[in-house]
UniProtKB/TrEMBL annotation:
This is MarR family transcriptional regulator. Residues 3-142 form the HTH marR-type domain. One of its GO terms (molecular function) is DNA-binding transcription factor activity. The keyword Cytoplasm does not apply. It comes from the Bacteria. SUPFAM superfamilies: Winged helix' DNA-binding domain (SSF46785). InterPro entries: HTH_MarR-typ, MarR/SlyA-like, Transc_reg_Sar_Rot_HTH, WH-like_DNA-bd_sf, WH_DNA-bd_sf. Keywords: DNA-binding, Transcription, Transcription regulation. SMART domains: HTH_MARR. GO terms for biological process: response to stress.
């Protein structure tokens, strides 16, 4: 069960970061996949900067990668050069504009802010570290927590039932393990101690 909770936290952090990434790329007329192509090309060597390598690394079809590369080339974020020894091979590299874009969009501002807030803290479990990181990311991003009912500030245990203090309604046992839009996190002893 512990592994499942850890996985869910990693998944939620990833979802929040992808959402922020989509907003940033959308604002400049790109999709996240375009950013992934640029990020790969920024860190790969001269043997891996080809269409096929990009497709293989990202787990995408060659068609999807080709379309993304065309868009990025048209917007002057990358350039193509023919291999000097094999004219059939096309190498891809970032332009200066492409490098600037990667520097501006990665790492995400909200992740940097969250990292600064939790970096100096010590955690007793990976789950507490991930939960604290997620909480800070949600605060910095001004997003709803969508946490489990049983982890909400409004959740209480009454005489013979569970109770939601927000709606003042009794809760079924199954409800307590489900996520809620109205979730309000309980104070986090790791990050709320400052």
């Amino acid at each position: 069960m512990h592994e499942l909770e850890t996985f869910k936290l990693i998944e939620r952090i990833s979802t929040l970061l992808r959402s922020e990434e989509r907003k940033k790329y959308s604002a400049i007329g790109l999709q996240p996949v375009h950013g992934q192509v640029l990020e790969f090309l920024a860190k790969c060597n001269k043997y891996s900067n080809t269409h096929a390598s990009v497709a293989e690394y990202l787990g995408l079809t060659k068609g999807t990668v080709s379309q993304s590369i065309q868009i990025l080339e048209r917007k002057n974020f990358l350039q193509k050069t023919i291999d000097s020894q094999d004219g059939r091979v096309m190498h891809l590299s970032l332009t200066e504009k492409g490098h600037v874009l990667i520097d501006e969009l990665k790492p995400l501002d909200i992740f940097r802010q969250a990292e600064a807030k939790v970096d100096h803290l010590e955690f007793d479990t990976i789950q507490n570290a991930l939960q604290s990181t997620l909480s800070v990311l949600q605060q910095v991003n001004h997003s709803k927590s969508f946490g489990l009912c049983r982890t909400c500030s409004y959740f209480t245990v009454e005489a013979h039932h569970y109770q939601c203090g927000f709606t003042d309604e009794a809760l079924d046992r199954d409800d307590t393990d489900k996520i809620c839009r109205e979730h309000t996190p309980k104070p986090n002893p790791f990050i709320d101690q400052e």
